[in-house]
Specification:
four-stranded parallel sheet; about 10% strand; EC 2.8.2.-; transferase; sulfotransferase activity; P-loop_NTPase; Sulfotransferase_dom
């Protein structure tokens, strides 16, 4: 496949030839990653017009890496004074509004027509004293105002092991493909696409490494969070997350169980069982809120991947991440 790029304008570095991949529709290569056409204009708008503020908090991830969980946790942390999370409270926004609506994606601006947060001239939202936004855009393709160090805006990156990320992405994309009446991908075909890097906002390894390296060089700027660590030790990880966001818990809050309350409020099972997340649509008429939630387990890939697939993915991961120091469960590379 050939690409046509404008070397004078990186924003135009896009392939004019679409191809099939691990996505719900045709994918196009843009600045080294793959994206579906509907999101491209939103991403360009983000790159060209977003002016970072000192108080901005950006949540980044590869699709299907626990993004909705991170959105819920960050929203609850940042807004806990306005919206207490103690058990007797029945008015928390997370009980009636999807995390995807509370923390909008800049990548999909067209699906949030009434969201003032996505008017980049606005400095605050009605929900909090900061702009809390989410993106799947790789680090090198973020707006210059985020990366150039001129502001103190912060980025939280959530990473999940490649095996579970692939399985979750495959299930999710097939659900959407089915809703759009597009032929679902067999696991073998989807696996080849993933390993080739042709997946939504992929390649996976490039995406992860971009944020990982930046977190090592600028730990005050980028907080790298592992999905598996968050599952295994939710309270210690949540405490670290809150401190990084500038909303650390006081001794009094900890003694009154505030961390545990947020963990419980935002747990996968609790969120999945809420009416708002079992009904209604998100992003478009073809994506239901319930489609966002599946299992949320660590190690579910063992139920799907063959030994040959596991060997191929492990070998590829070792090759891509060798020497980086990045650790997933079962190996350190």
């Amino acid at each position: 496949m050939g690409t046509i790029e404008d070397s004078c304008d990186p924003s135009k570095a896009m392939s004019n030839v679409g191809r099939d991949g691990l996505g719900h529709s045709v994918l196009y290569q843009y600045q080294g990653f793959w994206v579906f056409a509907e999101a491209l204009e939103n991403i360009k708008d983000f790159q060209h017009n977003f002016k970072a503020l000192d108080t901005d908090l950006i949540l980044a991830s590869v699709p299907k890496s626990g993004t909705v969980w991170l959105k819920a946790l960050a929203f609850a942390i940042v807004n806990r004074t306005r919206y207490p999370t103690f058990s007797s409270s029945h008015h928390h926004p997370l009980l009636t509004i999807s995390p995807h609506d509370l923390v909008p994606f800049v990548d999909f601006k067209h699906v949030y027509p009434d969201c003032s947060l996505l008017d980049y001239t606005k400095s605050t939202s009605h929900e909090s004293a900061c702009r809390l936004l989410a993106t799947h855009v790789p680090y090198p393709s973020l707006p210059e105002s985020i990366m150039d160090g001129s502001t103190n805006c912060k980025i939280v990156y959530l990473c999940r092991n490649p095996q579970d990320t692939f399985i979750s992405m495959w299930h999710y994309m097939n659900t959407i493909r089915n809703n759009y009446k597009v032929t679902p991908l067999l696991i073998e075909e989807a696996f080849d696409f993933f390993c080739e890097g042709v997946s939504d906002f992929g390649p996976f390894w490039d995406h992860v490494l971009g944020y990982w390296k930046e977190s090592l060089e600028n730990p005050h700027k980028v907080f790298f969070l592992r999905y598996e660590d968050l599952k295994e030790e939710p309270e210690p990880q949540l405490k670290k997350l809150a401190e990084f966001l500038g909303h650390g818990f006081s001794v009094e809050e900890e003694s009154h169980g505030a961390i545990k309350e947020i963990v419980n409020l935002c747990s996968f099972q609790h969120l999945r069982n809420l009416d708002v997340n079992k009904n209604g649509k998100i992003f478009s008429d073809n994506v239901a809120n319930k489609d966002i939630f599946r299992k949320g387990e660590v190690g579910d890939w063992k139920n799907y991947l063959t030994p040959i697939m596991v060997e191929r993915l492990d070998r590829l991961t070792e090759e891509k991440l060798h020497g980086s120091g990045l650790a997933f469960k079962n190996y350190i590379l």
